[in-house]
Amino acid sequence: LWKLSIIAEGVLRRILDDPRNKAEHGGPTVALIDGIVARAVLTADQLGLS
Fold it and tell me: Are 36 and 1 in contact (CB under 8 A)?
């Protein structure tokens, strides 16, 4: 999940830097990325990794 959130953050930054990078169907949102990070933290806590 951490890798996914890092990739999504990079895609979002590229879209913000140049809107032409946005796909026709859209791109990741801040809410989506925050949700992925929250799931990653919860998963790490459940596995005793934090």
Answer: yes
- Predicted confidence (pLDDT) per residue in 9-45, tens digit: 999 999 999 999 999 999 999 999 999 999 999 999 9
State the first-to-last Cα distance of the chain, in angstroms, to the nearest integer. Answer: 14
Domain that holds residue 12: 2-46
How many domains are there within the chain? Answer: 1
3-class DSSP assignment, residue 37: helix
Q: Which pair of tokens denotes residue 23?
A: 């796909």
Q: Residue 46 is encoded by which pair of tokens?
A: 């459940």
Query: Model pTM?
Result: 0.76
